[in-house]
Amino acid sequence: MTEPGSTAGPEAEVRAALRAAVVGEPPLALDRDAVFAAGRGRARRRALVQGVAAVAFVAALAGGIAVADRVAAPHRAPVAAGPSTAVDPPVLGLVRDRAVLDRMSDALAAAPVTWPADVTGKVGGFGPWYRFSDYATLYTTLRTPTGDRVLTVRVTGPDPAAADRPPCPVGTGDLGCRVEPLPGGALVRRQVGRDVGFAFVRADGSSTLVSESDPERGSTRGQVLPDATLRQLATLPGLAP
Q1: DSSP sequence for 160-196
Q2: What is the signed CA dihedral for 40, 90, 57, 185, rounded to 10 degrees?
Q3: How many Cβ atoms sit within 10 Å of the Cβ of residue 144?
Q4: Which residues are paired to 60 by β-bridges?
Q5: pLDDT surpasses 70 at 3
Q6: Distance in Å from the first CA to the final CA of the chain
Q7: Whose CA is closest to 124, among 98, 151, 159, 102?
């Protein structure tokens, strides 16, 4: 939570990480570079996911009805593998039906995805790399020779009450907002630093978000999965709720 008088954003994240690390630690034992890097990593991922959520809108049908993406993860139980995400608000249309989640997991496992040669392994956060959690979210660590990257996939159900908003609100262009109309919806691409995400928003307001980012602590290498692969995953028919 932001303290009164503080400024929200990446610097606030860094200061919060620094305060958390200082508590109970002798000053000389503090690795300031690691603390600041961790804070900035959390800030980048929050900006990416919340940014995609803010701009994933599509003019659906000839009547020009617009629907909005609501991409956010509720609090979940700790898991042994996978990154720490930074989105707290509740989700409209959250998919919780285990049968649907298993169907989407099977569809992802069977998808003809061409993985780059740099991806030497995939480690799932909830079992197999393609398995969705009970909150319709998947975290997979992508092993590469020069460091790990994290693939996140999140699916939300229909949101008929979504407001009519412009595809890229004022102030988001500098963060890489781009909208591409597609049959049945629209694809929104957003990039924040080295992290990139695609959100496919359908006419009924349901959505699939796919992003690739740095892990909480790890390499700072650039994007591993090409845009074509992220697009393929975001628009995969089997990942619809």
Answers
A1: TT-----SS-TT-GGGT-EEEEETTEEEEEEEETTEE
A2: 110
A3: 17
A4: 65
A5: no
A6: 32
A7: 151
